Amino acid sequence: MKISTTKKELFGRTSIGSWITIGHPAVAEIMAEAGFDWLAVDLEHSAIDISRAEELIRVIDLKGVIPLVRLSSINPEQIKRVMDSGARGVIAPMVKSRCDAENVVNAVRYPPFGQRSFGLARAQGYGLGFDSYLSLIEETIVVAQIEHIEAVNNLEEILSVPGIDAYFVGPYDLSGSLGVPGQFEEPSFLAAMTQIADTGRKMGIPGGMHIIEPDVGLLEKAIQDGAEFIAYSLDTRILDVGVRKGLEKFRR
């Protein structure tokens, strides 16, 4: 495992990443060249399989950008496979409790600090880099997605789990769990967001959210509001918005 940016460097400032849902290596390469701090291969809401995920991780990694994987669920087998493929860490969806958070950390870490089984895959240099990988295992990143009101109510317990490095708000699912899907100005949603931010600051755990639309104004607002770990849009929305804006003036 190569370390281009340490966890201390990543979480010691505002970092901006994005989401990859298109499983073509060229997309990962273009986005890595753009200058993101990290890129997350999305296995939850895409058709990307594990072999394609490894290709994308390889491209991102070789470009010197931190490769993360958003899991499809809290599944120890999937976590083991993406970590062995060379991911620097995972973003775990629907973490609702301390138990959920502990299960993710245990699946990422080797004994005696976790329960992940040992393998000799890409991350370990196919065996040659096993010792160096072990020496850098503390640099792996675990991000808990907070996207349900149950998680908000249990947030202090979740963030107190050793090995949870950051949290990440999923705004659509969080608003859905409150009965106001996509209504981000609703008082209940805003109250939940305030509670999350206050708890994160209290616990000293950096956090952020996914800005779905590629809107620089929304990015600036998130930074002003104190978000430190921000996903700026995703490949499909960047492509769609870019194409539409390019044609808008012509069509008028």
Plain-language structure description:
With 252 residues, this protein is of the alpha/beta class. The chain is built from twelve helices and eight strands. The chain has an eight-stranded parallel beta barrel, surrounded by seven helices. Helix 4 (76-84) links the parallel strand 3 (66-70) and strand 4.
Quantity of strands, as a count: 8
Low-confidence runs (pLDDT<50, min 5 residues)? none
Structural class based on helices, strands and sheet pairing: alpha/beta
User: What would the average pLDDT be, to the nearest integer?
Assistant: 95
- The appropriate CATH architecture is Alpha-Beta Barrel
Write down the CATH topology: TIM Barrel
Q: In the CATH hierarchy, what is the superfamily?
A: Phosphoenolpyruvate-binding domains
% residues in beta strands: 15-25%
H/E series, N to C?
A: HEHEHEHEHHEHHEHHEHEH
Number of domains: 1
Terminus-to-terminus distance: 51 Å
